[in-house]
Amino acid sequence: MTRHRIVPERSRLWADARSSLHPIHLETAGLTGYLEVEVEGSRLKPDAAVSAQVELEAGRLRTGTELYDHELEHRLEIERYPRIQGTVDEVRSLDSGGRYLVRGELSFHGVTRRVSGEVTIRIADDQTIEVEGEKEFDMRDYGLDPPRLLMLRVYPEIRVRARVVAERVRE
């Protein structure tokens, strides 16, 4: 397998929640980790072992609104659970266009759950792999109750989208 390092400044995470008043949006860079894959032409090599780990400091989750950010920091218990971590242990091709089913685990707020979802994997060049995907999560599955602030009610479903750019590690 060939190791690729996730480039934090080129990788991004977006999350969108709904509330009774308006949408809540956050965006951050700073994803770290690695991908270990075998590439064959412009695709992943079929049936080859795959390993990946993606991490994000929970403190990077910011909406830009002081009230929301304070509540987010409080609810996420950032000092107790400073990192969000995802691992991948299975990748299966869905078509010839670069769509894959990915399975692994997500650890968030002290809870680890099996997750799966579709991603698009693009071999940009012989050094760079780009992965994009989107998934909806229910915060209650990770031990978080949806916040209520005065008249504002936040719904438990959060849509998360990520773009990971990884560059081959030189040996």
Topology:
Blueprint (H helix, E strand, L loop, with lengths): L1 E5 L5 E8 L4 E6 L2 E6 L1 E2 L2 E2 L6 E7 L8 H11 L6 E11 L5 E10 L2 E13 L4 E11 L9 E2 L2 E17 L3
Antiparallel strand pairs: 1-4, 1-13, 2-3, 2-13, 4-7, 5-6, 7-8, 8-9, 9-10, 10-11, 11-13, 12-13
Question: How would you describe this structure to a colleague?
Answer:
The chain has one helix spanning 66-76; strands at 2-6, 12-19, 24-29, 32-37, 39-40, 43-44, 51-57, 83-93, 99-108, 111-123, 128-138, 148-149, 152-168. It has 171 residues and is mainly beta. The chain has a single domain (2-168), classed as Lipid/polyisoprenoid-binding, YceI-like (Lipocalin, Beta Barrel), CATH 2.40.128. Strands 1-4-7-8-9-10-11-13 form an eight-stranded antiparallel barrel. The longest helix is centred in the middle third of the chain and has 11 residues, at 66-76. The model has no long low-confidence stretch (mean pLDDT 93).
